[in-house]
Amino acid sequence: MWDHELAELERRKELAARMGGPERVARQHATGRLTVRERFDALADSWTEVGALTGRAVYDEAGELKDFTPSNTIVGRAVVAGRKAVLVGDDFTVRGGAADAAIHEKQVLAERMAGEMRQPLVRLVDGTGGGGSVKQLEEFGRTYVPHNPGWDQVVANLGRVPVVALALGPVAGLGAARLVTSHVSIMVRELSQVFVAGPAVVEAGMGESVGKEELGGWRPVSAAGTVDLVASSEQKAFELTRSVLSYLPQNAWTRPPVRAGRQALDQSVLRDIVPRDRRRPYDMRVIMRTVFDDVLELGGRFAPSTITALARLDGHPVAVLAGDPNIYGGGMTADGADKTARFVDLAQTFSLPVVHLVDQPGFVIGSAAERAGTIRHGARALAAVYQSTVPWASVLVRRVFGVAGAAHRPHSRYGLRIAWPSGDWGSLPVEGGLEVAFKRMLAEAGEEAAALKAEIAARLEAVRSPFRTAEAFLVEDIVDPAMTRPLLADWVRDAYEVLEPGPRPLTRP
Questions:
Q1: Of the segments 62-66, 79-83, 140-144, which one has the largest average pLDDT value?
Q2: Strand partners, 400
Q3: Distance from C-alpha of 416 to C-alpha of 84, rounded to nearest angstrom
């Protein structure tokens, strides 16, 4: 009875599957990039398209369909690594991924579907995704006041479901905003670029001639913290997407997924990793790889003195904060403070217990640090830590100094805190504070100043022993470093028993 309509349905689906046509598909492949449907196939276990018939149709005089250009936004209900998810992708073969008559509605639908069905959202961004080019204004016969349809949903999803966004080509304008308004953003080395505006617009507007890699390639973009992860290929980007989602719950109302933990590595190596010479650095990532089952570091090229990572501990997903003593001694920069605040917000949103491996000498100081507003950014990080309500464990590996050191945990509530024998803490490191505190005495000592300084340093060395702090119960436990993983594993099992998932409002100065 409906054979004609069913045949027409199949014909229209076939027309939509052409995307921008063979020539433009070939051009996409020639740049080393997959088409959007190939990307969906590579990322998802399976997927079903939503709105495949949407686009611009041309009819003949008899009212029969003559030609069809599909919308350049593709939406899919998908299964990714065994879990339901919503996919939304730009089709660069149709108008370079820029907006058309239907793109806004399909993008908004994807955001609403993910948020209201409480499923993770993956955005595959390839193009501007914005309001079109200046050339279109003549076609419209008017201009318009800019607005971002559905942006309320984009923002709301940050508190509802995991959002992973991938830059898979040149991404600018609203496309770039969609990329970074996510929990984790990924780009592909040498294949994608991210900018507010591309080289041609920059040259026309600013008189600056700059290549696309120099302007928005993976080196400047990852160093700026615009993206969290850089993949070597599209396939690696999809693998990273699946990996990120594996640490996160289906939504803010559920707990992160627990799996079987791996066999523990030899923990005795931790006993010798921190050198006795406090000025010597060590590799914090060795500690992380030894203590945790697996580790996925985020934002490694941005604010590198601060380490943020997703990890598993005895199979339980956790959020890991740490300092890198090889860079500024692990000191907190303005960027590092922002990195900390954003990461703690991620943990808070998705009920990830936090493990902080602390080696914090304090804020990075100097005129450059003051010009960067380090203390203002640092206060924001401190607020994020104190506002968090997820279970928290701090391991005082070495230094804990000053206001930045005070951000090692939310002190207003219970959290597991253990210290290694290498612990060293206070308002200021002795090496930096001695000459200030005893300035007049040393000045009056004349030729004996060096000997007096050595004598004072020896007295203070005894006072700074972590065992003295433990005697006053100002640190709860000093432990054998080799016991760190067993203690944390016991804590994380208890932490998961008391997790109370659910959306949480965030307020920040």
A1: 79-83
A2: 360, 425
A3: 35
Number of C-alpha atoms within 13 angstroms, CB side, residue 96? Answer: 12
End-to-end CA distance of the chain: 65
| Extents of the domains making up the chain | 3-247, 267-498
pLDDT tier for residue 360 given thresholds of 50, 70 and 90 = very high
Residues 6+ apart with CB under 8 A from 284: 307, 322, 323, 324, 325, 330, 357, 359, 397
Angle between helices 484-498 and 284-291 (to 10 degrees): 60
CA distance 167 to 189: 10
Q: What's the CA angle centered on 157, arms 152 and 158, to 5 degrees? A: 105
User: Could you give the angle at which helices 374-387 and 334-349 cross, rounded to 10 degrees?
Assistant: 20
Compute φ and ψ for 41, nearest 5 degrees: -60, -40
Angle between helices 36-43 and 234-247 (to 10 degrees): 50
Residues 492 and 353: beta-carbon distance below 8 Å: yes
Least confident interval from 9-18, 133-142, 155-164, 316-325:
133-142
> How would DSSP label each residue in 443-477?
HHTGGGHHHHHHHHHHHHHHHT-HHHHHHTTSSSE
Instruction: Report the alpha-carbon angle 232-238-244, nearest 5.
Output: 105
Q: What is the pTM of this model?
A: 0.90
Structure tokens of 182? 């996510």
Q: 223: burial class by Cβ within 10 Å (0-12, 13-18, 19+)?
A: middle
Which segments within 352-491 are labelled E, that is strand? 354-360, 392-401, 416-419, 424-426, 477-478
DSSP-based three-state secondary structure for 50: strand
Superfamily of domain 3-247: 2-enoyl-CoA Hydratase; Chain A, domain 1 (3.90.226.10)
Contacting residues for 307 by C-beta, under 8 A, at least 6 apart: 284, 285, 288, 297, 300, 320, 321, 322, 323, 324
Q: Using alpha carbons only, what angle is made at residue 423 by residues 421 and 427, rounded to the nearest 5 degrees?
A: 155
Rounded to 5°, angle at Cα 475 from 469 and 477: 110
Compute the C-alpha angle 53/59/63, nearest 5°: 105
Contact call for residues 193 and 212 (beta carbons, < 8 A): yes
Query: What CATH number does the domain located at 267-498 have?
Result: 3.90.226.10
**Residue 385, CA distances (Å) to 184, 196, 415, 473 in order:** 20, 31, 12, 22
